[in-house]
Write a structure and sequence with these properties.
The chain is of the alpha+beta class and 120 residues long. The chain contains four helices and five strands; from the N terminus they run E-E-H-E-H-E-E-H-H. The protein has a five-stranded mixed beta sheet with strand order 3-2-1-4-5. A hairpin with a 2-residue loop joins strand 4 and strand 5. Helix 2 runs parallel beside helix 4.
Length: 120
């Protein structure tokens, strides 16, 4: 099965609807840590640690595009530095949504393309 690699953005539908992460969606460089989809206490402690130290590269948002924009902005990254955008459900079952260099990027994420420009 095809899996995301470190040159991909992975958007996750937050297991606890943002109670601990602070947003409905999170975006990661590569696969997100397993702790985000774990039990209630593990997830809570993971996000408390992230808010205190920001040791992982992630973004948060109420929409998938907002989470990706936050990932890029907060971590000073560029969309064109990535190959694909994936989606996971609580860190499981990764599915590729679109390649960053495909025209369909604007269909899936029009706000992202409008704010961050095409990768051409």
């Amino acid at each position: 099965m095809d899996q995301p690699d470190p040159h991909d953005i992975v958007v996750d539908d937050d297991r606890y609807s943002g109670i601990y992460s602070g947003a409905r969606f999170t975006a990661w460089v590569g696969l997100p840590p397993e702790d985000i989809g774990d039990d209630d206490l593990t997830c809570r402690f993971f996000w408390e640690d992230q808010m205190a130290q920001r040791s992982a590269t992630f973004g948060r948002g109420q929409t998938e595009a907002a989470a990706i924009l936050d990932l890029l902005t907060v971590n000073n990254l560029r969309l064109e530095d990535f190959q694909q955008i994936w989606w996971t459900d609580c860190g499981e079952n990764p599915r590729r949504v679109v390649r960053v260099d495909e025209p369909e990027l604007a269909t899936h994420y029009p706000r992202l393309v409008a704010r961050h420009g095409d990768s051409d």
